[in-house]
Amino acid sequence: LTVVQILAVDLGTDMLPALALGTEPPDETIMDRPPRRRDERLLDGRTLVRAYVFLGFFESVAAPAGFFFVLWASGWKYGETTVATPLYREATAATFAGIVMAQVANVFLCRSETVSAFAVPLLRNRWLWAALATELALLAFIVFTPPGQALFGTAPVRLGAWLFILPFVVGMFGAEELRKLVARRRGRAR
Question: Which residues, 6+ apart, have CB-to-CB distance to 129 below 8 Å?
């Protein structure tokens, strides 16, 4: 990614959904759980592993996979220079799109640590929907409009690249839903 694309991820597409998650109403089962220990940290090792190792793995694979798919689908071979070409701009746009698609899935997965994303009421947080609409509008602006392409150094991403990235996002969603299911069953077994 270029510097301006990284800034678009950090300041444009990632910030608003993260802030909207902060307005998420508490889990309905929160009062059924025992209180947290006084010495327990808010950001503990389990949370860090879930965010950066487990979910982060899927996000970190989706982005470069989109990049290399665009290159290889166009006949690129290792060692060929592609910087500042239309192919390179499309590949970085696919990378950007992979990051944003994974962020959208991640927002729904992070609404609850243990409750399935399918069980959390969809319309419960209007700020989240506004943030996601803004994030997707920014993605469309950067990838599909001439001013966005000129400003961010991108090119339109072909349908094949979107379809190639999608299984990584669906895989992340499925893996986290499976982790939540196991966590719920372990909680009931205690």
Answer: 123
HEC assignment per residue over 45-105: HHHHHHHHHHHHHHHHHHHHHHHHHHHHHCCCCCCCCCCCCHHHHHHHHHHHHHHHHHHHH
Q: What three-state secondary structure class fits 25?
A: coil
Q: Tell me the HSE value of 62 on the side-chain side, using a 13 A CA sphere.
A: 28
Q: Which residues of 22-44 are buried (b: 16+ CB within 10 A; e: fewer)?
A: eebeeeeeeeeeeeeeeeeeeee
Is the pTM higher than 0.90? The answer reads no
State the virtual CA torsion across 21, 41, 28, 181 in degrees, nearest 10.
Answer: 90
Q: What is the pLDDT of residues 117-126, one digit of tens each?
A: 898 888 888 9
Q: With contact defined as beta carbons under 8 Å apart, do 96 and 8 qualify?
A: yes
